[in-house]
Design brief:
globular, 314 residues, 48% strand, 14-stranded antiparallel β-sheet, serine-type endopeptidase activity
Length: 314
């Protein structure tokens, strides 16, 4: 019964947190000695010095415990604090629950036309940047056209999604970001498209086993519509076009909550969206009186573990 210490970056694109969770649960349930470090701000390998020092301190103590010998118990306050934060109580680790996408959700509501401006704050590895974006929702024949324009220091990003009026599933999507452009067409059992980088184009195809909804710029407007319709939860896929894979998601209505916005208190419907095996998790607050997304907050492993906060501008 060899003891094991599992060290995991929550945003590791190669070894997923869910895989480490499964290892910890299996060893714990078999009675093996297992310890678990999980850093929510790391990917593949620990980059932050404080995380590295905390890990070294834990490993030294772990080896001394199981092999015999001494270890240095004293450490700087910031390292001790971080070690406590990334040390996981293995008795509380659960096997990840896989999201099973059911039949296409029955949707009976429309998107809200208009242009909505948001402030965005993006946090990664202790750094924070702020931007502004505009989301436009317009009618076009049998579809809603949702376009988000984001101004970044390196240039403007435009992301457009065409959404079916009948069921709010995605029909088409196009992304333009400097030298990168993507086009995608959504069918019943596959997504086909083209990725162009610096003039070089490459076609792609992604297999589907369920509907694609609430993706890209259409995420907020679609969730507002689902909140209006009511119900408890919905399952569907999102398309990770860069990694060329479909990601199962579940949206759950958590209830009603009053949140502060500008100088007022706003009654909202609170929703949570969990994708993959929990590596992407976002919370949304929908203004119940105006039927508009008031704010959202969450962390995305598929975007390198960044935390994104979005707030409606007056």
């Amino acid at each position: 019964k060899t003891p094991l210490m599992v060290v995991q970056g929550a945003n590791d694109p190669r070894v997923k947190k869910s895989e480490s969770d499964q290892i910890v649960v299996a060893l714990r349930d078999k009675g093996f000695a297992v310890e678990y470090l999980l850093a929510d701000d790391e990917g593949h390998g620990f980059a932050r010095p404080v995380n590295q020092m905390a890990m070294f301190a834990a490993v030294e103590k772990f080896l001394a415990k199981h092999l015999g010998g001494r270890y240095q118990a004293d450490m700087p306050p910031d390292v001790a604090k971080r070690l406590a934060e990334i040390t996981v109580d293995v008795s509380k680790v659960e096997k990840p629950k896989k999201i099973q996408v059911q039949a296409k959700p029955a949707v009976h509501v429309a998107l809200l036309p208009g242009t909505f401006r948001y402030s965005l704050r993006v946090e990664a590895q202790g750094q924070s940047q702020s931007f502004e974006s505009a989301i436009s929702v317009q009618e076009k024949d049998n579809a809603w056209v949702v376009t988000e324009t984001l101004k970044l220091p390196q240039g403007e990003v435009s992301d457009t999604a065409e959404v079916s009026k009948a069921d709010l599933t995605l029909l088409r999507r196009s992304v333009n970001q400097g030298p990168l452009s993507l086009t995608a067409h959504f069918e019943k059992e596959k997504i086909t498209g083209t990725m162009t980088m610096a003039g070089q184009s490459k076609p792609f195809e992604i297999a589907l086993s369920g509907p694609v909804m609430a993706d890209g710029p259409a995420t907020g407007p679609t969730l507002v519509a689902l909140a209006q319709q009511g119900g408890e939860s919905w399952t569907f896929f999102r398309a990770d076009l860069l990694r060329q894979q479909a990601q199962p998601c579940q949206v759950t209505i958590l209830g009603e909550e009053t949140v502060a916005w500008e100088s007022s208190s706003v009654p909202t419907t609170k929703l949570e969206m969990v994708c993959g095996e929990g590596e992407d998790r976002f919370t949304f607050w929908v203004d119940r009186s105006r039927n508009v997304l008031l704010k959202s907050s969450g962390q995305s492993a598929r975007m390198g573990g960044v935390t994104i906060h979005r707030t409606l501008l007056p």
